[in-house]
Amino acid sequence: MVPAFFDVLGTGLCCMGFLFMPASVWQLLRGANIVFAGALAAIFAVTCLGRRLYCFHYIGLVFCVAGLFLVGLASVWGHDLQAAAEGKGSGNVQLLMLGICLALAGQVFQAAQAVAEEWLLRDVDLPGLQVVGFQGAWGFLAMLFFVFPMLYLLPGQDHGHAEDEVNAFQLLRSNPTLSAMMGLYIFSVVMYNISGIAVTGALSAVHRLMIEALRTLIVWAFGLSIHYLVDHTSALGEVWTPYSWLEVAGFLVLMMGQAIYGALIKIPLLYYPPTGIEVAS
């Protein structure tokens, strides 16, 4: 139940932040969950799990924080430059900052979800598919009895509601294409969770977060290709600004920090705990 509720809260905050920023920036900021996962691991190491962080972990976290700072700075400056070129005010930049804060807040809960899943897999020794199944059941109950009624009762622009679920159900019934896309999305989420829980069980929550960060390159390349190769007026595209190089640098620093944290890149003269294979040999 606990990781399912973390997933609902984290996904909700991230989706709200997604409304105010480009897709590539949102994906880059998702790398923040390794920072919060490391912080949560440090807290759990003292309290209940009996694990610890070493010097290279903290160095990796510093690199991740620096990379996220560069990404956020490049995003704000780039949007400010674009708004000035289009004759707009600073409202878009303020919304971008709001989106960044919401996305980072969502990463706190998603990092907590990854750590909780690792605890269930290793300390409780539950099968991976069983963890996914229980999370899906608890998430379904949370959405059905709490999130959907709350969104329906809150005032908004969707027929007087923040979200009109009845109208959304009618839209799905009357549009086979939309229903097919929804089914494809559900299938992809199922496979994503099964694959993610398998990586967490075989390696760790941090390795899972590192692999997820690689999606950023694909999303960024897709956004640039939409703008420059398909339709430069499309809202799905992304413009290359003079500050995009800073965003690239932030991504590289972030990936470097993740590699150092996961001991994929080892710093000389630092102590690294032996792996299971090294202990066996």
Low-confidence sequence ranges: none
The count of strands amounts to 0
**Inertia-based shape:** globular
Radius of gyration: 21 Å
Percent of sequence in beta strands = under 5%
What is the domain tally? 1
Order of helices and strands: HHHHHHHHHHHH
The total count of helices amounts to 12
What is the helix fraction of residues, given as a range?
over 70%
Please outline the major beta sheet: none
Average residue-wise pLDDT? 78
Question: What is the SS-derived class?
Answer: mainly alpha
- State the separation between the terminal residues, measured CA to CA: 39 Å
Transmembrane segments: 31-49, 56-76, 96-116, 128-154, 182-206, 213-230, 242-264
Protein name: SLC35F6 protein
Keywords: Membrane, Transmembrane, Transmembrane helix
GO cellular component, one term: membrane
Key features of this structure:
281 residues; mainly alpha; 12 helices; globular; SLC35F6 protein; membrane; transmembrane; transmembrane helix
Give your account of this protein's structure.
The protein has 281 residues and is mostly helical. It has one domain. Helix content is 76%, strand content 0%. The chain contains twelve helices and no strands. Helix 5 packs antiparallel against helix 9, helix 7 crosses helix 8 and helix 8 packs across helix 9. The radius of gyration is 21 Å and the shape is globular. The two termini are 39 Å apart. The relative contact order is 0.17.
